[in-house]
Each structure stands twice: as C-alpha cells, then as structure tokens.
Amino acid sequence: MKLAITLFLLLFSLSGHAEGLPDIADASQAAVSPEQEKELGEQVMRNIRSDPSYLDDPQLSQYLDGIGQRLIINSSMPGMKLHFFMMQDNTINAFALPGGFIGVNTGLLLAAESESELASVLSHEIGHITQGHYARMMTETKGSSIESLAALALAILTARGGSQVSQAALAAAQANSIQSQIDVTREHEEEADRVGLAVLSRSGFDPRAMASFFERLQKATRLYDNNAPVYLHDHPLTSQRIAAIENRVQNYPYRQVLDSPDFWLLREKLAADQGNAEDALSFFQTSLKLGKYENEAAYRFGLAEALIRLGQYRRANQALDKVEKAVGQDPVIAIMRGKLLLALGQNRAALDYYRNALSNYPDYRALNYDYVGALIDNGRAGQALDLIASRLQMDPKDIHLFQLRARSYASLGKNLLQHQAQAEVYYLSGNLPGAIEQLQLADKSDDGDFYARSMVEARLRELKKMAASLPAKKKRRF
Length: 478
Fold this sequence. Notes:
With 478 residues, the chain is mainly alpha-helical.
C-alpha cells in the first residue's frame, strides 16, 4: 500500500493559535503536550541519525537552518525553534517531525532552480505547522496515547522506503484506524499555500517561486508515469491549487530576489558528491567548457569538490582560487580551503587559516568542527577540548562535539573520559545499549578522579533506568 502521509503526518503545532483562524480546541492541546512533543521528536531523531540515508552534513543543515529561521520569524510563531537535517534521497520531498525537526531530501535541493523555490517548500511546511493542522486532526483521534503516536511516527519514517516491515509497524500502531482521520486534505494544502506564500514574501523571497516550482513539478509527472515524485504523493497538486497561488501572487509587488552564494555553492557541491566521482568531474568539466551553467562560480566549486573526491588536491586548489576570486570571502569556501591545506600537508598554514576564518565566522559549526579536528590531529588536544567545552555550552546536544571530545581524550590517553564522551555519541545517535556499554567501560577504567567517576555512575544509572522502561522489542535501539 502506497502511503500518502509520509510528509504531513507529523506536523505538530507548538502553540494553540493559528493566524486568521479560530483557536484550536483545548482538547487538541491536551492530546500531546509541548514536552511530549519535544521528547517524541528527539526520540525519532535518534532513530533517524542511525539510518544509512541520514546525511550528516553540518554545512547543509546550517544553511537550511538559516532559511528556516528567516521564514519562521515572519510567521505567526516567530519564537518556534526549527532544526533542519538532510536525507540522502533523490526523490523530491521534505517532512516535518514533532519538536520542530524538518527533514529535506537531497532531491529537493537539487531540483530547486532558485533559493526562493527551496524556501517556498519550507514555507509551505511552516504553514502546516503554524496553522495547527495536526492538532486539529488530533481532536478527532480521541484516546491516542503518546506511545502509539511514537510507534506511528517511526512507522511513517520506515514507510519512506515502502517496505513490508513498515506496514507491520503501521498495523502495530493501529494506524489504519487513524489514517482516515489524518489524510492530507485539500483545505489544509490550500491553507498552507496561502499562509506559506505570505511568510515567503515577508521573508524577502520571491513569492512567484512557489507557483513556478509547483507548476514545474506538475509538468514533470508525465515523465514519471505512475511513479511521480514523492512530494506529489504527499502534497497532491492540482491546476486549481497552482492557479490559486498565481492569483494571490498578483497582490504582491514584483521584486527581483538574488540567490545567496551559499545556495549555489552547496547545491553544486551536493551534485558533485552524487554517484561516481569521475562522472561528476566529467559533468562539471564539460559544462564549464561549453558554457552550460546557471552559475559559473558554483560550477567551478562543484568541479573542485569532484577533484577532491579523486584526490587531485592541487587542481582543486586552483579551481577554488577562481571561485574565491568571483565570490569573495564565504564560510563555505573557507571550509574547502582548510581541507585542501590539510590535504596538501600544509598543517601550520591550515591551523592559522582556520583560526582567522573563525574570527570572521565564529558561529559557523562546520568550521568549528574542522578546526577542532585539525587541532587534535596536530597534537593540540588540550586546546581542542577548550573550544569544545565553549561550544557545548551553546548546544549541549551537539553529537559532533561529543565525537570530537572522545577523539581528544583518546589522543591524551584519558580512557574514562573518552568512554564517557563516546557514550553520549551513542546515546544521541539512538544506540542506547552502546551508550550503556561505553559507560560500563568508563566505570572500569583505572583513571579518572572521584568527581568523574561519580558522573559516570550517575549517568549509567539513568540510562539503565531508561532501558528498563522500554518495551522489550525496543531495547536494542530506540
């Protein structure tokens, strides 16, 4: 059975007021509390991070976070926290989870021909959230517990692959009795279009991009026969919907919106990372030779990425020089430059470069990760730990920082602290048994002071209690 609810099912509302609409009934607010919502979202994210299709790319995540924040502050829920992540999936799709987590397939970014087109899909999703569509439908699903919702959430994620296992999970979650209540309705889609269009315009993007992108997707369906893009299954497009968007657009003043350099740079970097590296190199070389490109600097950036994949670092460095000359300073370029300096064996120059780049872009996460990694590899683990500690104060659930902390302690020979940090890596990635095992190893280590051992023992008791509370079939991975 082809599920049409992959994208929309888990659009949770974080407040009870929808712009221009009646307040959501109190019953819907009581169905799932914000605390349960956040807990469920984090639980599902731990499973997602352990999925092979999860694309752990800090640059792409932070780029999407930036667009999402720009959109949400111009919505009816400006204080809502959104966290974006990417899935390695060539289908054109995006989906939202409880707690403000929004996934974007690589296919969506590659299909977007402008930053405004990408933002139009995200603003549509935000429209679903701010209008409280899920909360409204929850009022018709009386008696649903948080446990059944969690099971259903995981089943929906599994169903992205259309497996028989997902169907069994749906049955276990009693989804058949719920699905009729929560199918995406035309009213919700049109409402999300309307609200998303307003958010898109207020955020400085081109509102016409929503209609152009949806129209292009609709026309593309004839090439897919019965296998239309996933986004069209989840968000059925009609000529009436597109016409309605186009009519509303007439009320907005025309504006020419320039794409940010990062949209093009990261889009072509992503394209260069797909498939065979030789094929990627050939594509960018041929496109540049024939002048067939939308953005020359971005295509040269894609060329540099393909060359890096093939280990041709000097040629990649030369290509990057041309990119930087055209674009100027940019954190995306800085990331590639630092990696190339390290690959070329210029370690001291790389450390100096990272330090200077961070003075310009102190909050660019990928730059911090790469600098910390370079410090560890160059015998400066103590300095790396200081930087990690300062960053963890801002984001205490940053799995990359815990990975780097574990590496730092390993290089210093501090076994207890290494296992303690690795336990948090496993916990955040959804591997509870692995986290417990690491804490047990830490407890048996012959180093560490009384305070460190007490911390390990307390965390071990906490995770064991958590494991004991899980159903037997979920204890291996939650």
